[in-house]
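User: Just a sanity check before I run the rest of the batch. Below are the structure tokens for the first item. I only need the designed sequence back.
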């Protein structure tokens, strides 16, 4: 890998870390439940991007599978939270 790519990956990881910290603050200080759900969505998306970035950095395909699992679990969690906020129950 080139030096520019190492720098770009490091910068990307720092930005994603800042995004996760910002989403965590929104998770705890969010005035409504919808704000908290959006913060959780942002956090799982950033975690998935961190896994993909680390997979590119180390060249290990295991990170890509982890990112796929994070995306799947995050999507199902988002749907469950949306159903709960809309109807008050997840399973009918």
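Assistant: Here's the designed sequence for the first item:
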């Amino acid at each position: 890998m080139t030096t520019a790519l190492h720098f770009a990956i490091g910068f990307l990881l720092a930005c994603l870390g800042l995004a996760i910290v910002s989403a965590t603050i929104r998770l705890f200080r969010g005035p409504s439940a919808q704000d908290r759900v959006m913060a959780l969505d942002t956090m799982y998306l950033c975690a998935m991007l961190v896994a993909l970035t680390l997979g590119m950095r180390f060249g290990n395909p295991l990170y890509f599978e982890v990112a796929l699992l994070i995306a799947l679990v995050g999507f199902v969690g988002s749907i469950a939270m949306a159903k709960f906020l809309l109807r008050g129950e997840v399973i009918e």
